[in-house]
Amino acid sequence: MAHIQFVDELVREYLLFRGFTSTVKAFDNDLKADKDKGFRVDKIVDQILHYVNVSDLAGLKEYWSHLDSLVFSKLEVHVQPAVRKIEYSLYKMYLVTAAQSTGGVRNEKVSEFLSKMLSELQGQNEWKEWFMLPYIQKPEENPSFSLYFTRAWQDSVLVSLHNLLATVFQCMPQPTLTSYENDATLVKKLQDEIIALRGKMQQQSIDKTSSIGHQSRLAQYSDRLSGPMPLVDDFCAVPAEQLDSGLREARGLRGLLRQMGGSPVMGRKTPRSQSQN
């Protein structure tokens, strides 16, 4: 929900534009005291981790109660055990951090937690051993508590908390003012679809025009082929009897030429030819 900060700026700009200076001051004060941190998951996790590191049990319980009333209590029933498990894991992280403190502060913070949370935690099997924590010299070496002192376990708790908050905030109903991003995304998607459809229609139009031109050229070639046959084909169409008559005429013509070649006229030599001889 990163767009929440942008909406806050829009609201502040609008209030300044309208001249609501006192409202702007109140709005800024509310933003500074905003427990929701603009629904930024990383900021909320940092705030919870701060209460754990400074052993502020009252602050931790109050902040978790705020988140519970804001979002966790509105979740479905089958999700509640997972939320409760993360809450108890944070309490265990609180005790582990307090137990790693030096001197009397360690026993003081651990004992304070157990005494204040006694009514809530007593009777639960997973917490029975934790009431012995103030009396164990090296709890990080004890098989019952060694896991909780590892960095891997503590990181897994914070990751689970981060994922839970991110999922919940993503599913929360949004006010109309903050839905502009979804509307802008939808408009952009529709515009892209329109552009894609236009390109597809233009391509179809080009393909259709090309097909029509190709068919037109084929029609022209077909017309040419269906017209008069070439000259060589005309000769092929001459009847056989006409061809035989032509052959007889050609033989008669060659015989006539031979007879003319043997005549005195054709055999007479010219003076030029005699001089050459």
In short:
The chain is built from 13 helices and no strands. It is mostly helical and 277 residues long.
Q: What's the Cα radius of gyration?
A: 52 Å
Strand portion: under 5%
- Average of the residue pLDDT scores: 79
How can the largest sheet be summarized?
none
**End-to-end distance:** 123 Å
| Weakly predicted, low-confidence segments | 231-235, 263-277
Quaternary form: single chain
Class inferred from helices and paired strands: mainly alpha
Classify the helix fraction into a percent range: over 70%
Total strand segments: 0
Specify the overall morphology: elongated
Number of helices, where a helix is a run of at least 4 consecutive DSSP H or I residues: 13
Order of H and E elements: HHHHHHHHHHHHH
Description:
By secondary structure, the protein is an all-alpha fold. Among the domains are: about 1-35; about 40-175, no CATH class. It is about 70% helix and about 0% strand. The protein contains 13 helices and no strands. It has helices spanning about 5-20, 20-30, 40-55, 55-70, 80-100, 105-115, 120, 150-170, 180-225, 230-235, 240-260, 265, 270-275. It is elongated, with a radius of gyration of 52 Å. Mean pLDDT is about 80; it is low at about 230-235 and about 265-275.
